[in-house]
Amino acid sequence: MMAEEQTRNWFGVTIATQLRDKFDILDRNGASTLDFQSMLRYKKGIPMVVDDGLPKEVSPLSTLFLERVFETNHYPKAEMDYPAFVDFVVAIEFLPASCPRPNFFWRIFDIFGEGRITPLVVHSFFKETYAKLKSAEVEVAAIEIIIQELFDLIPSKEPLIITHDEFVSAKQCGLFSALVVDCLAFYTYEN
User: Fold this and answer.
1) pTM, 2 dp
2) What does the alpha-carbon distance between residue 171 and residue 52 come to, in Å, rounded to a whole number?
3) Which helix (H) or strand (E) holds 163?
4) For the segment 58-87, what is each residue's pLDDT rounded down to a tens digit?
5) How many angstroms separate the CA atoms of 21 and 153, rounded?
6) If you average pLDDT over residues 103-116, what whole number do you get?
7) DSSP three-state, residue 80
8) What are phi and psi of 80, to 5 degrees?
9) Cα 116–117–121 angle (5° rounding)?
10) CB within 8 A of 191, min separation 6: which ones?
11) Which residues pair with 116 in a beta bridge?
């Protein structure tokens, strides 16, 4: 394999080392596991982008999203080990271009276990993303308008209600997920 291809190969030494480095940066206590507090410092990118324009201790990902990652995956002792971290990274780093793990995101978004995503659910996740954008003085439309537009990304039988099957089969579920939970993905998409 050419050296350039090796640096982009998720199974290559370069990416594996960068992934482990990212894990170790987040593992402040050296326990080889990450708790919720550690993941609040998660920054996107392989290697990890340290200066993403947000304060050092602020993740572009919404807190509710990270809480739900821990709730829905039932990690032992509420701590994520390295294999679980790699699984998380694979799910989040490919957004918004693709969504290799739509069911991962569905479990997170289905807060009430009702089998549907509603404007209330999207608002619950998006309000922090929106607040981060506003605090950075980014011009964005009213939150209600954005939520309406987010629902337009996923074809559904009922207006403003997305079912499991509609979500996981939608080509734009990765974009929807990224825009709802990641302020930098939203900013990049809009600009």
Assistant:
1) 0.90
2) 27
3) strand 162-163
4) 889 999 999 999 999 888 888 999 999 999
5) 35
6) 96
7) strand
8) -95, 125
9) 135
10) none
11) 163
| Helical spans, DSSP H, in 74-181 | 82-93, 102-109, 119-135, 143-152, 164-169, 173-181
Question: Containing H/E element for 162?
Answer: strand 162-163
Q: Which pLDDT band holds residue 89 (cuts at 50, 70, 90)? A: very high
- Contact (CB, 8 A) for 113 and 68: no
SS3 call for 117:
strand
| Alpha-carbon distances of 53 from 40, 136, 183, 187, rounded to whole Å | 16, 9, 11, 11
Q: Which is higher by pLDDT, 8 or 20?
A: 20
Assigned token pair, 23: 């894990």
Counting beta carbons within 10 angstroms of the beta carbon of residue 160, is it exposed (0 to 12), middle (13 to 18) or buried (19 or more)?
middle
The residue length of the chain stands at 191
Torsion sign, CA atoms 88, 144, 37, 109: negative
Task: State the amino acid at position 120 in one-letter form.
Answer: L
Tell me which of 159 and 9 has the higher pLDDT: 159
Rounded to 5 degrees, what are φ and ψ at 164?
-55, -55
Q: Which of 178, 154, 167 is nearest to 62 (CA)?
A: 178
Q: What is the pLDDT of residues 151-175, one digit of tens each?
A: 999 999 999 999 999 999 999 999 9
